[in-house]
Amino acid sequence: MNGKIIVDLLNKRDETALSYVKQLYGAGITDIAYNILKNRQDAEEVLSDTLLAVWNSIPPDQPVNLPGYIYKTARNKALHVYRGKKQKKRGAVTVCIDELGECISDGDVEGQIEERRLSSLIDVFLSSLDPENRRIFICRFYYNMEYKQIAEKYGMGLSRVKMSVKRTKEKLKNLLIKEGF
Q1: What per-residue confidence (pLDDT) applies to 70?
Q2: What is the mean pLDDT of residues 69-93?
Q3: Domains along the chain with CATH numbers
């Protein structure tokens, strides 16, 4: 079952699409969430939230890279849970932004433009890396995997993974400084 077929099923509002998504991508979603949250129960909750978000967003969204779309959604859901737990630990009062939606602007336009520019710059940077370093970097900073997990996944030594991350971070840092970030 490929991503195009699943997207077509989602567009037709066929609930079997969610079964396929869970079957094909459920383990990856749970792994991403667990790497961020370090809690199996919360990771399972993120899986459910991700399936619902995918159901609600396709249509109108039409992702070309379905796994990337799903994993990005899962990562964002897990980070949202993580931030919420962190806020509760500090005893912060959370205001429901949804209720204030009409009163609050979407944010400053300049900040959004800078964010898009940074995102584009990182995309170009990642595409310039050799496949091995790109995989390692994405596993570490996108999927929040530990060095040991990455080494095991790709059958590499731990020091090789650490050195790859260090060198890639240094290259990215130099690029961002050069570009004014």
Answers
A1: 93
A2: 77
A3: 3-90 (1.10.1740.10), 105-178 (1.10.10.10)
